[in-house]
Amino acid sequence: MSVTIKDVEHVAKLARLELSVEEQQVFTGQLNAILKYAEKLNELNTEGVEPTSHPMPLSNVMREDEVRPSLPVETVMRNAPDEEDGQIKVPAVLE
Amino acid sequence: MSLFERKLQEIHNDLADRTLSVQDLVNESLYRIQEVDPKVKAFLSVDEEGARQAALSLDEQLAKGGERGLLYGLPAGIKDNMNTEGWKTTCASKFLSNHTSIYDATVVRKLREAQSVTIGKLNMDEFAMGGSNENSGFHPSYNPWNLDYVPGGSSGGSAAAVAAGEVYFALGSDTGGSIRQPAAYCGVVGLKPTYGLVSRFGLVAFASSLDQIGPITKNVEDTAYVLQAIAGHDPLDSTSLKSTIPDYISSLTGDVKNLRIAVPKEYMGEGVSPQVKESVLSALKVLEGLGATWEEVSLPHTEYAVATYYLLASSEASSNLARFDGVRYGVRTDNADNLIELYRKSRSEGFGAEVKRRIMLGTYALSSGYYDAYYLKAQKVRTLIKQDFEKVFEQYDVIIGPTAPTPAFRIGEQVDDPLTMYLNDILTIPVSLAGIPAISIPCGAVDGLPVGLQIIGKALDEATVLRTAHAFEQHTEFHKARPQL
Hints:
- By secondary structure, chain A is mainly alpha-helical.
- Chain A has helices at 5-14, 21-38, 73-77; strands at residues 83-84, 87-88.
- In chain A, a hairpin with a 2-residue loop joins strand 1 (83-84) and strand 2 (87-88).
- By secondary structure, chain B is of the alpha/beta class.
- Chain B: One of its GO terms (cellular component) is glutamyl-tRNA(Gln) amidotransferase complex.
């Protein structure tokens, strides 16, 4: 499995990144090196081995469905790059 | 002698007698920062005014007969990926250069309850991705022992600030070794607790199944105090464990008689510097002299840990960092005509190369067609790595080896070769994947650069890890060495 510059372009699109041609070239080489190293894992037979997604035995942590106070809108807006009438403003979503 | 060379109990006695004030301690910290931080560059921000205010109010409180908290008056630094209300929290990323926290991380709240004084926020590799602090979006930090060398990472600012005497203690976060490796490189004590022991609420997430906050201090006793203050269940973190918190401070008995130590041959093999091995073997002799026994064991899947880690951590990071889109906070591009462009340009302008590289790797590993081959495979190997430890712990109390294969490396030495850089973490990553606790303590030096000893324990058995580390420290002088700055 070898990563091409086209793959890098595609993955960047999925990751919402815009890479320069130079970055695309550098990442193609580096991702290939890292993924080649990762192929080491194929030396291991993992048939029947359960995957570990989380190191400690915890699942379905539930809490009472009680309403708790949220952060005030004015506080949250302090970090917003653009705001209008207590709402975050973004460029057009639809053409 | 610096006030920070004194033991916590001595400082507290003098504070109680009022022969010392919290303002003295804070002045010491601020003075030292002014004196050495232009060289070490450990801090991203210092709140002089706020720290002085806090000190004054703690002094007044005590004068009125108030109770002293566990960490009363001690100047602390906090890694800049933990939210501190009203302070900048940047994760050393240009993307968050304008971001001010609007709430406190649980650990920050707990430090305040324990009455320590936060002095400032500490440098790190951007979003905790890296092992040298060279990936900080603002400036690198420097190793106080030799300014041409890296302090390690990603909690490099935290380790350097403690080593340089700028704060009494610091908090770091560890995903694959980010507390232990810089602690080793800077000659200080760093503990990564069991996954889930310390709340991650308010810690900016890198790889959620691995991230864990822990103390960086100058000696093991202080680590026990800080851990006591920050450990415990938090309903705001759904991965937080509901276990009872033992008294870590009283676990420091100095007694390691009949302690069964395992030394993995993979941790003492090829790639580990001979001088580092020698330091570890001398440390084992010290523990042997105190009545402990050690035997060589095998953790056979060690060589697969780095590959496993980089697939899993990068995958989790690619998902976690999706939240940085330039909409609600952070730096937004000026050049976007539509929403997708706003996402892409804001992210590309704000993130550094290592962060982009890991997002790319993670997105690739999770993308359609590759998920089973990379992500799922790595999760299965994670199980095998975890089982390696479980088997050894059936017969042994702790596992001991080096924290890192070599002492600190030169700035710039590995910067163009991400894979070589990743291999520095080969001895800390397996522990992170298994979720178990481990400490790094000073155990020697090579050419004036510190060497770290790693003591690994069973899940939630921080008490035994601390007891072993403390017993070693009582019979050696390594933790007392200080860099000349």
